[in-house]
Amino acid sequence: MSEPHPIIPTRAPATTSVDDTILPFQVEALDLRGRVVRFGPAIDTILSRHRYPAPVAKLVGEAIVLTVLLGSTLKFEGRFILQSQSDGPVRMLVIDYTTPGKVRACARFDQARVASAMENGATSTGALLGHGHLAMTIDQGPDTARYQGIVALAGNDLQEAAHEYFLRSEQIPTRVRLAVAEELRADGIGARHQWRAGGLLVQFLPKSPERARVPDIHPGDVPAGMELETPREDDAWIEARSLVETVDDIELLDPELSAEQLLYRLFHERGVRVFRSKDLHAQCSCSRERVERMLRSFSQNDRDHMVENDKITVTCEFCNSTYVFDPLEVQEPAAQA
C or N terminus of the chain, fewer CB within 10 Å? Predict the structure, then answer.
């Protein structure tokens, strides 16, 4: 006699939306795993610290959501770092996600080129980034080698770059949705703008690897008239991908729509299972002690060139915290003697 199947508790989706969380989920009938990310105060804190122009802030917000969606898949303690280098008005993005839920971010951009892009309406993600590359780095600590994947940026947005990365590097059918917007809210003081963001990632992970086959990368030297074999997409993945493409930005951002309600809208006919959510925090790793150690690692000549008005001032690019030192504080003991 076969063993009975375990009973999985069922319930209605939670109606209460919780900001700054990662909600993992699974749709067994479609062999899907994924996660929904909801950002409220945490992303507003990160973006407000820098006072970026609105298009730059939106781009940084999208990069933060993408980094958390990808980094939260790590099964171990470590860091996931997303970094872009390109020739667009926003020449560099750095997003640092540390498990289980700490995130920080910064951007470098050309103020004049961003202003020009805003005047001309050329503020899409692809236009701001331009051409270059996007690097995704997994760092498990000082005793292990880093793993890095790189995907080209060619005027495409971050969603397309993520899809290209998984197609070429991971060979996992994947779909990503990202949304960032400013929200106008009235409180006791008056109207206030604050940033919100959300994201959805789904991956097709069937037990049979043949079902997850994706088209091979074109070799570039196929004889004329010869057609490459293209594997047929699995029906379950076609269905899942089609459902994800129906998601609107407002569904990822709306504080009145919980992540569980969104998943129910998408997958209630197939059944969706959610797991314990994880909290997200805007938290930088800088400190006065770390900055002091960094300054001590420089040569005396380098430190001398940092002195202005008899002080050494260091500002963290991630959180804008400023640390001021007397030059004598960061001298080596021998130099002080």
Answer: N
CA–CA gap between residue 110 and residue 23 (Å, rounded):
36
HEC string of 133-176 equals: EEEEEEECCCCCCCEEEEEEEECCCHHHHHHHHHHHHHCCCEEE
Strand pairing category for 174-186 and 191-204: antiparallel
Give the C-alpha separation, 314 to 310, whole Å: 13
CATH number of 288-336: 3.90.1280.10
At residue 1, the pLDDT reads 46
DSSP letter at 3 equals P
User: How many degrees, rounded to 5, is the angle at CA 161 between CA 159 and CA 162?
Assistant: 65
Task: Label the pairing between strands 281-282 and 102-109.
Answer: parallel
In terms of pTM, does the model score above 0.85? Answer: yes
Longest dimension (CA), the chain: 84
- Give residue 192's pLDDT: 75
Residue limits of CATH 3.90.1280.10 in the chain: 288-336
CA atoms 88, 64, 45, 323: torsion sign = negative
Tell me which architecture the domain covering 21-221+232-282 has in CATH: 3-Layer(bab) Sandwich (3.55)
**To the nearest whole number, what is the mean pLDDT of the chain?**
89
Counting every residue written for the chain, the total comes to 337
Distance CA 248, CA 253 (A): 9
Q: Which two tokens stand for residue 169?
A: 């590097």
Tens of pLDDT, residues 50-68: 989 999 999 999 999 999 9
Q: Which amino acid is at 107?
A: A
